[in-house]
Every structure is written in C-alpha cells, then in structure tokens.
Design brief:
Length: about 130
C-alpha cells in the first residue's frame, strides 16, 4: 500500500517535510494523479515554465507532465529546513529525448503549509 499524506493538523518541519516530499515524488514517478493531487489545495501554486494555480490547473499540469514522460533519473541531494524541501538531481522527458538531450540537471523546491504543498517550483541548474 502506498504511503498516505499525513492527515494531522500539525505543521511538519525538517524530516517531516522531507518525508512528505519523498511521498509526493514517489506518486509522481508512478504517475498517480489522485495521490499527487492530495498534496495540493486550491491555494497551491506550481511554477514550471509558467505558473499554475489551483487544483484544476495543477491537475492539468500533472497530466501534461505524465503524458510527456517527465521523470527523475537521478536524485543527488535532498535538503529540508523548516517548511521547505529542496530536491536536486536530473530529469528527462520524451520532449528532451526528441531534442537529443538525455537529461537536464535541476532543482525542485517544495514549500509546505501544514501537510500540503503551498508552492512547488522547478529550476534548471548547471
């Protein structure tokens, strides 16, 4: 059985938000739209080649990423501090491979409000 989003009203930090980020990443890698969406609220924002706000836009963003085959190919480092988790590694997608690019190095920053992702942002790094 897959890990579930913690349902208590407590605000996790450090290892707690790292565990939540790893749960989300596992669902993302498995292309599980329902479990992924449990991490977001109507006030959440995803910043990835544009800004996606609210459940409908974020669900459409996930569907487009899943259709493109976006996935992590390497996770180099996970750091957590307070309500923020930063994942650094490399990702690939069908679009990148069509351009003959194997993968890109990047950084994903997730800021939590309680057990929900408030903002999720992506940045390319060298």
């Amino acid at each position: 059985m897959a890990d579930q989003v913690v349902s208590s009203g407590a605000s996790p930090s450090g290892e707690g938000v790292e565990a939540l980020a790893r749960q989300y990443l596992a669902h993302f890698e498995a292309h599980e739209i329902g479990p992924c969406m449990e991490f977001f609220t109507e006030d959440s924002t995803v910043e990835f080649m544009g800004q996606f706000r609210g459940l409908k836009d974020i669900e459409e963003w996930h569907k487009a990423r899943f259709a493109a085959g976006l996935k992590m190919v390497r996770l180099d480092r996970v750091t957590a501090s307070g309500n923020e988790v930063v994942l650094e590694g490399a990702a690939t997608s069908a679009r990148l491979r069509a351009w003959r690019i194997k993968s890109v190095n990047g950084k994903v920053t997730a800021r939590f409000d309680g057990n929900k992702i408030k903002t999720l942002s992506f940045a390319v790094r060298s």
